[in-house]
Amino acid sequence: MSVRILALVGSLRAGSHNRQLAEAAVKHAPEGAQIELFEGLADVPFYNEDIDVEGSVPAAAVALREAAGSADALLLFSPEYNGTMPAVLKNAIDWLSRPYGAGALVGKPVAVVGTAFGQYGGVWAQDEARKAVGIAGAKVLEDVKLSVPGSVTRFADTHPADDAEVVEQLTAVLAAVHGHADAAAAA
Fold first, then answer.
1. Cβ contact 75:110 at 8 Å
2. pLDDT in tens, 83-137
């Protein structure tokens, strides 16, 4: 049985380096793991309890919840916007946290990685994403990290999937997420 890992990318830009990093994860998925890159975060409206009512939940939010609900683990890719995670990623976490105590993230292994232009590779944003997803009920993989600095120059001519150092680090992340998902599924 294959482990399903859902990848959520916090940047909507077509040429996003975090999207490219997620594409590299799909390309280098370990044997026995399937990584699905979720499309459609741009279509999910801002969380509003007034529209989170059975029969009224927007289709894009339903699709997000279903994708996360059927995944064995999640891998979040976060750039850093003004020292924190992008609104689109926070919004996804908000939708996945409901209904309170029984959202699609509860008990699921989740790792947060990413790349940013700054010298620390977006660690503040990734720390904020770990905090939010943990409060939402996920089993945050605190020891599974990857922050790639200098994305604009580092990936100017090289896709992350072709950067040997990044691939080595990403492969270790994927193996860890796969192992945690396998263990959670067996429990």
1. yes
2. 999 999 999 999 999 998 899 999 999 999 999 999 989 999 999 999 999 999 9
Per-residue confidence (pLDDT) for residue 16, from 0 to 100: 96
User: Can you tell me whether residue 107 is helix, strand or coil?
Assistant: coil
pTM score of the predicted model = 0.97
Q: How far apart are CA 140 and CA 83, in angstroms?
A: 20
Contact between 160 and 149 (Cβ < 8 Å): no
Q: Which residues have C-beta within 8 Å of that of residue 147, sequence separation ≥ 6?
A: 113, 114, 115, 116, 120, 121, 122, 123, 126
b (16+ CB within 10 A) / e for 74-108 = bbbbbbbbeebbbebbbbbbbbbbbeeeebbbbeb
C-alpha pair distances (Å), 7 with each of 41, 49, 73, 154: 11, 25, 9, 22
Phi and psi based region of residue 175 (left: phi greater than 0; alpha: psi -120 to 50; beta: remaining): alpha
Tokens 């793991």 belong to residue? 33
